[in-house]
Amino acid sequence: MADIIDKLITYFQFPFVRYAMITGVLIALCSSLLGVTLVLKRFSFIGDGLSHVAFGAIAIATAMNLTNNLFLVLPVTIICAVFLLSSSQNSKIKGDAALAMLSVGTLAIGYLILNMFSRSANLAADVCATLFGSTSILTLSMTDVWFSIILSALVVIVFLFFYHKIFAITFDEDFMVATGVKAKTYNLVLATTIAIVIVVAMNLVGALLISALVIFPALSAMRVFKSFRSVTICSVIISVVCAALGILISILAGSPVGATIVAVDITGFLLFSLIGKLINKG
Amino acid sequence: MKSNAELLISCQNLVLGYDGKVILSNLSFTVSQGDYLCIVGKNGSGKSTLMKTLLGLKTPMSGQIEWGSGIKANEIGYLPQQTEIQKDFPATVREVVRSGLINRSGLRPFYTISEKAIAEKNMRKLGIGNLAGRCYRELSGGQQQRTLLARALCSARKILLLDEPVAGLDPEAAAELYSIIKNLNDEGITIIMITHDIDNTMGFATKTLRINEE
Questions:
Q1: Which among A257, A197, A253 is positioned nearest to A16, based on CA atoms?
Q2: Rounded CA gap, B190 and B34, in Å?
Q3: Which residues are paired to B79 by β-bridges?
Q4: Which of A85, B96, B98, B102 lies at 20 to 30 Å from B151 by C-alpha?
Q5: Model pTM?
């Protein structure tokens, strides 16, 4: 045990390890806040879909040689999020199909563009890093950390400010529109926030594993808790604990960060399913 | 019949449908303050579409809906049919009922004490005060409908639109719900209700709108 603590203390003397820890926990917090709503709205795959959109946008930014790709990636992802969340009802292509189309389409186009225009010698590694976020969290700069702190603070503030509205449009959007609530505006706020979280989260776990960060804590919390508020609070706690544990384990075991966090999230889900079963029996 | 009652809704030559297909045409009717209007008709005849159009959730293919000058969107209550999403939704009865208050609060991020009192009053009125902390998805069908009706009452100050409120309820729960709705009407709230259950509602309704397929 003392060995492990010694090892961790040594590692935490490196700034990049501290940066990874801060950013990881913050992203876990933001994604789980929104996860409850997304899972309940039947948008579990939006994390996957939007991260592929962001991947496609990054590919285009790379091909265009943009120095800061965020100015392209963020607006494109926000537009797609708005499109997905608003077209879910009463449209000819249903939410899940639209999501699947967008997800697969942008992934393919993104890879195509990278292949055609990228001058990088090791394309496969680049793609792998973007999709799995294998190393990028360990190469964060101080600016990246501040950037994620500010964005997370923004997400938390927006969520708290619109908490009751978010609950209401998740539970029953038609009722809100019918009774004179500006549900469209709140959907827009929600979509924008989700897009921001996903673009930021790509730094941590990469495009492919974002869905896990969004859905696992929410699903775990729903096994045990029965009110919207307790589910939200619990899923945030689960997510933060799992992310912190995942990062610590990956440091000690030398395993890939994103995948380790997801493995811890899966363990958490199994644990909460068991607790939920025991509670319902007793 | 109240002759001088204020006109709340007046529909003229409404044509409803989707994807270019007409399902209802040349529909004209009016609703006045204090009315109890029952909309009856076969499945698929466009009853729910009509209600959603009245509420502004769908746009009519042609024709006009005019809401009286005395009523604003945030004075309407609506009891929709249950959605798939709500069946496994983790929320307490109190959380659901309070969400009916949002159309009063504008941008304010919290509920005021007097708003919370309205929610509590409506829960007691519908006999679900003791269920306030219970989980919505674990309630019986009748209790769920009462929860949604209490939510509708939080947003309704003048008119209540109900889409098959007794669907899936046993006769006893249905009768209770009907008497609650009747009481609300007696208190001055205008009721528009879609129903299959003509036998049990004719005694309450002051007006009936029959919708037939083309």
A1: A257
A2: 4
A3: B162
A4: A85
A5: 0.88
Q: Please tell me which of the candidates B76, B85, B133 has its beta carbon nearest to residue A178.
A: B76
Sort strands B7-18 and B62-67 into parallel, antiparallel or unpaired: antiparallel
What ipTM, to 2 d.p.?
A: 0.89
Quickly count: other Cβ atoms within 10 Å of residue B3's Cβ: 5
- Cβ–Cβ of B103/A179 closer than 8 Å? yes
**Candidates B99, B135, B151, partner chain A, best to mutate (most A CBs within 10 A):** B99
Q: Quick one: how far is CA A123 from the chain centroid?
A: 25
pLDDT at residue A38 tops 50: yes
Q: Which amino acid is at B38?
A: C
Distance in angstroms (rounded) separating the CA atoms of residues A43 and A32: 13
**Crossing angle of the two packed helices B141-155 and B171-186, in degrees rounded to 10:** 10
Give strand pairing partners of A201: none
As given in the structure block, the two tokens for residue B152 are 């509708």
What is the token pair recorded at A193? 């926030």
Strand B207-211 and strand B36-41: the pairing is parallel
Instruction: Give the position of tokens 């999403």.
Output: B85
Query: Is the CB of residue B8 less than 8 Å from the CB of residue B72?
Result: no
Instruction: Tell me the backbone φ, ψ of residue B170, rounded to 5 degrees.
Output: -75, 160
- Cβ <8 Å between B91 and A227: yes
DSSP-derived pairing of the beta strands B159-163 and B76-79: parallel
Q: Tell me how far apart the alpha carbons of residues A24 and A30 are, in angstroms, rounded to a whole number.
A: 10
Cα(A125)–Cα(A133) distance, rounded to whole angstroms?
Answer: 11
Least Cα separation, residue B78 to chain A (angstroms): 6
pLDDT value of position A7: 86
Could you tell me how far CA A221 lies from the centroid of its own chain? Answer: 17
Residues in chain B predicted with pLDDT less than 70, given as ranges, are 1-4, 213-214
Measured CA angle at B79 (ends A87, B194), to 5 deg: 100
b/e A11-27 (16+ beta carbons within 10 angstroms → b)? beeeeebebbbbbbbbb
Single out the residue of B84, B98, B79 nearest to residue B161, CA to CA. B79
Q: Which two tokens stand for residue B214?
A: 């083309």
B142: which residues sit within 8 A by CB, 6+ positions away?
Answer: B169, B170, B173, B174, B176, B177
Single-letter amino acid, residue A138? L
The residue in chain A having the minimum alpha-carbon distance to the alpha carbon of residue B108 is: A161
What's the distance, Cα to Cα, between the start and end of chain B in Å?
A: 31
Q: What are phi and psi of B31, to 5 degrees?
A: -125, 130
Q: Between chains, do B102 and A165 touch, taking CB under 8 Å as contact? A: yes
pLDDT, tens only, A195-237: 888 887 776 667 767 888 899 999 999 999 999 999 999 999 9
Candidates A179, A225, A228: best to mutate against B (most CBs of B within 10 A) is A179
CB contact under 8 A, A178 and B99: no
CA-closest candidate to residue B121, choices B94, B84, B139: B94
